[in-house]
Amino acid sequence: MEMLINTVRMIDYDQVKEYSFGDKNSLKENLAIGIINPEDFEKLNLTTSLNLKLSNEYGKVIIKVKQNKDVPIGTILMPVSIWANQITGISNEQLIFKNIKVNAETTRDKVLDMEELLNIIKK
């Protein structure tokens, strides 16, 4: 299903806060997430045991999903983080971090932790 990603800064999902005061688990739990409308959650046949795989021309990433009825249908909000960076890019010398088109599909694949993502980037 095609959706739009918007990276956002949120008090409860902040990379600097998690890196400073959290641990490896809290980083992944609070930053490797997407917040979507419950209607999209249903359209994607998601459950709490499934993850969401996002892919586009810039890359791919697997995240957990949280529901919020205030998120516009067809949109995924992601905290600014290394996980969101996997699907952002540069076009016409501009950083693309809003209204990023992605293909979203459910998966049982695991969400990678920060160290695993860094090892992929280093290759």
From TrEMBL:
Known InterPro entries for this protein?
Asp_de-COase-like_dom_sf (IPR009010), MoPterin_dinucl-bd_dom (IPR006657)
Q: Which residues form the Molybdopterin dinucleotide-binding domain?
A: 33-96
Q: Which organism is it from?
A: marine sediment metagenome
Q: Where is the signal peptide?
A: none
Q: Name one GO molecular function term.
A: molybdopterin cofactor binding
State the Gene3D superfamilies in the record: 2.40.40.20
* SUPFAM superfamilies (UniProt xref): ADC-like (SSF50692)
Task: Tell me the classification of the organism that encodes this protein.
Answer: unclassified sequences, metagenomes, ecological metagenomes
Q: Spell out the protein name for this chain.
A: Molybdopterin dinucleotide-binding domain-containing protein
